[in-house]
Amino acid sequence: MKKAAAEFIGTFTLVLFGCGAAAMAGMGASSTAIDGLPIAFAFGFAFIAMAYGIGPISGCHLNPAVSFGVLMAGRMSAGEFVVYAISQVIGAIFGAAALYLILSGKGGGWAPAALGQNGWGGGYLGGYDLTSAFVFEVVATFLLLVAVLGITQSGNPTHVHGLSGLAIGLTLTAIHIVGINITGVSVNPARSLGPAIVGAGSNPLALNQVWLFVIAPLVGAAFAGLLFKSGVLTRDES
């Protein structure tokens, strides 16, 4: 229960602040001017804060894809994965709901579709097609998991000296800097499901497209996890 609670709180925080920054960016000229770089830092810094807050309890996955990669690498059981994934998705939904309530109080109104939902195609940010979106999400999640699994493996100096949260958070930031204009960046099924579900009434397209942001991250995470399990990317401690 401690791990489930930690993952719920951590994913809630990631969605509230990361998607909150994205939502603020789309609220027009009268709102705070936030461009892609601060959004990337919002996701990265939120992760770093939670890594040091709840990392000692649950490992701070905050992401079913990360948990799936850890499972595929043989570092957690299937039962643990289910508990983590459920906690993360519920945390993301509550985070998106809290963001919805906060934005609803904005004077002059706001666009309820703008909850930081992921997407692709004409009319969405850079207008990238489905293939571009899928390839980016697979590759970006794969690289995120290479960082996560490599940094946290036994004996890694970064992990030993307590810098893993910072290193992973900065990796997440870099991924967002590159990918925000492509898909809004998911690499995290929970982060995509929360805003898509809460905003479904006003933005059904996001919910219709959310399948990609579940499947692609899991595919990328699986590749990374299997590489570590096979020993290809395992640290040589000799």
From TrEMBL:
Keywords: Cell membrane, Membrane, Transmembrane, Transmembrane helix, Transport. PROSITE patterns: MIP, PROKAR_LIPOPROTEIN. GO terms for molecular function: water channel activity. The keyword Oxidoreductase does not apply. InterPro entries: Aquaporin-like, Aquaporin_transptr, MIP, MIP_CS. It is a multi-pass membrane protein. It is found in: Cell membrane. GO terms for cellular component: plasma membrane. Its main location: membrane. The keyword Transmembrane helix applies. The chain crosses the membrane at residues 38-60, 81-103, 130-151, 163-185, 205-228. Belongs to the MIP/aquaporin (TC 1.A.8) family. This is Aquaporin. It comes from Segnochrobactrum spirostomi.
